[in-house]
């Protein structure tokens, strides 16, 4: 028997309206310098914020370049721009809208690929981050549009190969709909944040995102190979590094995802086995089937290079620590630090729950760990605030948590002295 309360709730909340087509239809793909110039002129003449989105070919192509950029602005409509066909440089478009507010969803995911093609905002509004700060339980674009605006977006093409040409019409429809209601969502979330007293916090977050430099290349990216925890010996680590670098060079040359050249699991299997020849290598998981003899010889050469490395050139078993050790080891290594971290985490967690936002948005967990591992010589709110600021914490975050963390440090100080 259906609960009467469930029936009442379902009747009170209308079903979302499926959003099937863009208001002005699917625009043609902008794929020439002449067409791009028309888009630039239209968006320069438009008014209000600019909705921006990008589609990549993750899992298909090398790197994270944008293969389609979607934009929408009042007075300009929607544009679907092929940055590859336009020469890989959309600086003219970026310049035309640089001073306007850009509206993105999960901006940190799209900004790096937008930077590569000359698109960089000076002001932005991130609807995903706004949803987090406002306390929404699900902050994907589809759930946000549904819960805030009452429309259902079709999300079936998010993981397709966007380097495909020509792009199928259903994919283009999906891409256009991704920016169709983005400004409407922005406006509704602005009002929600204002009503909760969090709008200024959000604006600080958005300003920090817009001002952040492009991400620096990772140090020793090969250490992120999935399954690395199984590799214990330095020479085996050397084999992972040699195989990873060989795979990366091939993937870059072919413009394919590295995982399509050789899987991480295969790299780890070869490093653990350290086969003596290509025949032994071919018997390992991931090296059979379509791997031809020439490729097999190349992978074996990488293993042989690792075997021949002198000891001084072998990688260390752990990446150089860039901060405190894992918290699970604190109780043994520094019980006082473990107590400080436990108290600080509890205080931050309680405040995050009170404010109805994720803890990691209230303050970066790594910043809390660093302050607790090496607290200021004199635990004061000012000293803690300075430490947090050094780690990139925003003013609103510092204002909310510096006193709490200071109290946590002070609460366990006597125990630390004992």
Automatic annotation (TrEMBL):
One GO BP: nucleobase-containing compound metabolic process
Domain HRDC span(s) in chain numbering: 233-313
One example GO MF annotation: nucleic acid binding
Pfam family, one: DNA_pol_A_exoN
Region (Disordered): 1-23, 311-334
Alphabetical list of InterPro entries matching this protein: 3'-5'_exonuclease_dom, Exo_C, HRDC-like_sf, HRDC_dom, HRDC_dom_sf, RNase_D-like, RNaseH-like_sf, RNaseH_sf
Entries under PANTHER family matching the protein: RIBONUCLEASE D
Designated name of the protein: HRDC domain-containing protein
Native organism taxonomy: Bacteria, Bacillati, Actinomycetota, Actinomycetes, Kitasatosporales
């Amino acid at each position: 028997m259906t609960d009467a309360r469930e029936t009442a709730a379902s009747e009170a909340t209308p079903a979302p309206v499926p959003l099937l087509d863009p208001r002005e239809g699917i625009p043609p793909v902008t794929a020439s310098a002449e067409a791009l110039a028309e888009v630039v002129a239209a968006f320069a003449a438009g008014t209000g914020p600019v909705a921006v989105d990008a589609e990549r070919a993750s899992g298909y192509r090398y790197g994270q370049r944008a293969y389609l950029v979607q934009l929408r602005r009042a007075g300009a409509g929607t544009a679907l721009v092929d940055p590859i066909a336009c020469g890989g440089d959309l600086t003219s478009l970026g310049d035309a809208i640089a001073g306007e507010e850009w509206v993105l969803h999960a901006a940190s995911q799209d900004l790096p690929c937008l930077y590569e093609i000359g698109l960089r905002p000076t002001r932005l509004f991130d609807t995903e981050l706004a949803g987090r700060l406002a306390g929404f339980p699900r902050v994907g674009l589809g759930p946000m549009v549904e819960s805030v605006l009452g429309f259902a977006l079709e999300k079936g093409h998010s993981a397709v190969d966007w380097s495909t040409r020509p792009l199928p019409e259903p994919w283009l429809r999906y891409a256009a709909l991704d920016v169709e209601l983005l400004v409407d969502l922005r406006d509704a979330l602005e009002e929600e944040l204002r009503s909760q007293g969090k709008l200024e916090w959000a604006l600080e977050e958005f300003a920090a995102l817009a001002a952040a430099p492009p991400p620096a290349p990772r140090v020793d990216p090969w250490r992120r190979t999935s399954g690395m925890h199984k590799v214990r010996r330095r020479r085996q680590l050397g084999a992972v590094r040699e195989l990873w670098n060989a795979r990366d060079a091939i993937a870059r040359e072919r413009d394919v995802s590295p995982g399509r050249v050789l899987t991480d699991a295969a790299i780890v299997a070869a490093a653990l086995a350290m086969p003596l020849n290509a025949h032994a290598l071919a018997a390992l998981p991931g090296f059979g089937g379509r791997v031809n003899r020439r490729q097999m010889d190349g992978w074996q050469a990488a293993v042989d290079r690792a075997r021949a490395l002198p000891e001084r050139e072998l990688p260390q078993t752990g990446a150089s620590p860039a901060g405190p050790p894992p918290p699970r080891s604190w109780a043994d290594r520094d019980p006082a630090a473990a107590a400080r971290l436990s108290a600080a985490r509890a205080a931050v967690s309680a405040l995050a729950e009170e404010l109805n936002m994720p803890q990691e948005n209230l303050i970066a967990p790594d910043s809390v760990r660093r302050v607790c591992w090496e607290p200021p010589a004199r635990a004061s709110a000012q000293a803690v605030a300075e430490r947090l600021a050094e780690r990139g914490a925003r003013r609103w975050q510092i204002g909310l948590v510096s006193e709490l963390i200071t109290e946590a440090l002070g609460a366990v100080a006597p125990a630390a002295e004992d």
